[in-house]
Amino acid sequence: MITVENLSKSFTQNGSRVTALDNVSLDVPDGAVCGVVGTSGAGKSTLARCISLLEKPDSGSIRVDGTDLVGLDGSRLRAARRRIGVVPQGDSLLRQRTAAGNVALPLESAKVPAAQRRSRVAELLDLVGLSDKASVYPDHLSGGQRQRVAVARALAAKPSVLLADEPTSALDPATTDSVLTVLDRARSELGVTVLVVTHDMAVVRRIADDVAVLEEGSVVEHGKVLDLVSEPGSRISSTLLPETDQAEPLRPNDRSHDVVAEVVLVGFAAVGALLPEASSRFGVELSILGGGLTRLGDTPVAKFRVGLSGERSESALKWMIERDAHVRRAPVSVDGVAA
Amino acid sequence: MSEVTPWSEVLELARPATVQTIYMVLVSTLIGVVGGLPLGVWLHMTSPVGLSPRPVLHRIISAVVDVVRSIPFVVLLVVVASFTRILVGKAIGSTATIVPLAIAAIPFFARLAANALREVNSTVVEAAVTTGASKMRIVRTVLLSEARAALVGAVGVTMLALIGYAAMAGAIGGGGLGSMAIQNGYYAYDDRVLYSAVVLLGVLAWGMQLLTDWVTKLVDRRRALANV
C-alpha cells in the first residue's frame, strides 16, 4: 500500500513562486487501483514525478508499506525506487533494445542472474499478452503494445506499487482498453497497488476502485468511486454518472407526480429490482423522467430522475433509502411549492 | 616545362603516403575516441540536462574543450611541437604528427559525443532512473547504447576532419598524402603527383564515409526486424 501525506512542492518560474502541490494526502490500500484525476495544470505530473522519486518534495512523506521514501540518497534511493514501478508519460522504451530487452532492464539493475531474468521476462510478457513480440524492437510495435511493454518493465523488479503517468494519453479507445486491462491484471494477478495519474475519466470508469481529484495542487475529493458517486455534490459523481435532465431543475413535485427525486442505484440488485419493487409494493405509479445506466468497473450504476404518483409515494421513497438507494430531493418550502 | 613524372614513380610515392595517412588517421581517431568519449560523457552528465548537473564544472570543461577545438590546427602543430619531441623523440614524420592530431581529436570528438548523448530521449533516461539503475549503468545501457548510431557517425566525422588535418600536417613535414601533394607535387611543380595525391585523399575520405555509414547501419537496431 502507498500513503502520501502532506506533500507540498513549489517551483520558481520566471522569478515567481508557483505552488504545484499543496498539502496533498492520499492513500491507496493494498491491491487497489486508484485514479488520480485533474485537469492539466492541477499538479498531476508533479505528483507523479514526486511519487516516482524523480522530484524531491519540499515537505511531506511518501510511504510504501510503511517505509518513508522521501529524502533518501545514493544506494538507498535506488533500492527505494525498485519498490515503485513506474510507467512514465510518453514513449519510454529503449529503441535499441527488443521488447524483452526493455523488460529485462530493471532486472539488470537489480543484478538478477541471467537465467532467472529470462524466465521473469517471459512471465511478464505473457502477463501483458506480448509473448510473441519478445524479440521485436519498439519501432515495430504499436502505441498500445509499447505501453504494455512499459507496464511489464515497471513490474519486472516486483514492486509493491505501480505508478502509471497518463498511460493512455496518446491512444485510441480500443488500445486504451488493452492497456487498462493489463493494469487491472497486474492488480489482480500480482496484487500490486496501482496508481494511475490521468485526465481521462474512462480510466476511472474502467478500472479504479478509488479516486482522488486534484485541483490547483490540492486533493478536493478522495475516496472509493462507488461511495463518491452517490454523494450529491461530488464532482466525480457528476462526471461519471448519466445526466438526468440538465434543462429542468429538480423540483420536489410537478403537475403529474406527487414526488420527484433523483435516485442513484449501485449494484446489480439495486439497479435491476429496486424501482419496480417499490412501485408494486406501495402501489405507486413510478415513471422515469431522465437519467440512465452506466458501469463502473464491473458494477452497474444508475442515476434516474423519477416521478412517483400515489398516496404512498413518500413511503416508497423511504423504503428505497432504507435499501441503500441514494435519493436527492429538492427542498420543499412551507406551502409545498418548490423553493 | 619539366618532363612528366612516369606513373610508376607516382605509384611509388603514393603507396607509402597512403599507408602513412591511414595510419595517422586511424591511430589518432582511436586516441580521440578513447579520450574524447569519457570527456563527452562527463560534459553531458554535468550539463543542465544531464544526470549530475554541475553548472560551474560544466562551464569549465566546456570552455577547455571549445578553446582547444578553436585553435587552428596549423597553430596547434607548432605549439605542441616541443611536447611531441619529448613524447616521440622527433617533431616530424607521421608518428610525430599523431600527437597534435590526437590532441585535436579528443575535444572534437568529445563535443560531438556530448551532442549525440543529449539527443537521447529524456523520458527513456528517466524511465531507467526509476528502475533504480546507477548512473554508471545508465551511461552504459541507456545513453551510450541508445546513442550508438550517432556516436558511430561522430567517429566518422572525426575521421574525415583528421584526414584534412593530417594533410595539413604534410605541409610541415608530417608525411602522408599531404606531404606528397605539397612537397613532391606543389613545390616540385609536378601536377601529376599533386593531383594524384588529391584524388587519393578524396577516395580515402569517401571510403571512410562509406565505412562509417555501413557500421552505423550495422549497430543501429531501431528499425531492425525481429530475428525470430
UniProtKB/TrEMBL annotation, chain B:
Keywords: Cell membrane, Membrane, Transmembrane, Transmembrane helix, Transport
Any one Gene Ontology BP term: D-methionine transmembrane transport
Positions of the ABC transmembrane type-1 domain: 18-212
Record's bilayer topology term: Multi-pass membrane protein
PROSITE patterns assigned: ABC_TM1
Transmembrane segments: 20-44, 56-81, 87-110, 149-173, 193-215
Subcellular location: Cell membrane
Domain of life assignment: Bacteria
Pfam family, one: BPD_transp_1
Gene Ontology cellular component list: plasma membrane
Family: Belongs to the binding-protein-dependent transport system permease family.
Protein name: ABC transporter permease
Source organism per UniProt: Actinopolyspora mortivallis
